[in-house]
Amino acid sequence: MTHFESPMTILMVEDNALQRRQIEAQLQPLGHRLIVASNGQEALDRMKVALPDLVIMDAVMPSMDGFKACEMIKSDPRTAGVPVIVLTALSRDAKDRSYTAGADDFLRKPANNLLLQVRVQTHLKIHELARQTGAPAAARAKVLVVSASSLIRSQVQNHCGRDQAQFLEAQGEGQARAQIMAHRPEVMVLDTELLEGSAQSLAVDIHESEELRGMPILLLHAPGELETWSRLQQPVADALEKPLVAPETRRRVALLSRLAQLQKLVQA
Predict the structure, then answer these.
(1) Are residues 57 and 148 in the same domain?
(2) Which of 38, 239, 240, 253 is buried deepest, with most CB atoms within 10 A?
(3) Of 39, 102, 99, 94, whose CA–CA distance to 76 is shortest?
(4) How far apart are alpha carbons 106 and 208 in whole angstroms?
């Protein structure tokens, strides 16, 4: 779990009381302060009084829907820097509409506990570091892709583009450890399917290492596999279900690359 010096403030925009309680229960272990708005207009009014550190936005609400509210948040220089995660049961084009409106992330209801928590923590950490440094990260990150599958290793690199990152590869736990020691990657993309060793063991060791724990891990997992990671105190910064889709792979790797590079700026 990512630790913060003090609790951050999350604005949850959700008109359904039952779903509000469910999301509150999912976020409660993170220890942040949660405030609530029941529609987009109420969210905008709250943000005029005090800026939250993150917004979790439903899409379908009375008065003003989440897409319009997100557009207005991102078009206002005062609020544009606040990360917005759209969390909705809408299917079809909801993801595209969310990103078009300026959302920083998208999750479908009901969200997996671990996935919601790591996405929230990662966006909060990026927001906090960006505020500290006052500058965006732009350099190419060094990314280690660990998978038994040559297809997965190639997909990650092709989806992201080799001009966006410098890629290293490993097929199993032993090779990954050797690459880490030799090249000090900034981000790890870790498939649950390894040629040898255990993805969980590798992730936990990195998370518990004082020297390496700052390296964000993107977990690539099969459907239904994420639950087995929930008991590990969140040693990953994000997760992505296979089969991989290019826009989402690119978005997830870019997010963790930004986190890694902002951490370097703070440490410099």
Answers:
(1) no
(2) 253
(3) 102
(4) 29
Same domain membership, residue 89 and residue 25: yes
Give me the phi and psi of 244, to 5 degrees please: -75, 145
Q: For residue 57, what is the domain's CATH number?
A: 3.40.50.2300
Nearest to 53 by CA among 82, 73, 13, 32: 82
CA distance 65 to 53: 21
In terms of Cα–Cα distance, which of 203, 198, 235, 238 is closest to 218? 238
- Angle at the Cα of 197 from the Cα atoms of 221 and 161, rounded to 5 degrees: 50
Query: Could you give the CA distance from residue 167 to residue 62 in angstroms, rounded to a whole number?
Result: 46
Q: Maximum CA pair distance of the chain?
A: 56
Place of tokens 């557009």: 71
Q: What is the pLDDT along the chain (268 residues), one digit of tens a residue?
A: 445 667 899 999 999 999 999 999 999 999 999 999 999 999 999 999 999 999 999 999 988 999 999 999 999 999 999 999 999 998 879 999 999 999 999 999 999 999 999 999 999 999 999 888 876 656 689 999 999 999 999 999 999 988 889 999 999 999 999 999 999 999 999 999 999 999 999 999 999 999 998 999 999 999 989 888 887 666 899 999 999 999 999 999 999 999 999 998 888 6
CB-based contact 32:55 (threshold 8 Å): no
Residue pair 122/237 in contact by the 8 Å Cβ criterion: yes
Q: Are residues 28 and 115 in the same domain?
A: yes
- The encoded tokens of residue 233 equal 């105190």
| pTM, to two decimals | 0.93
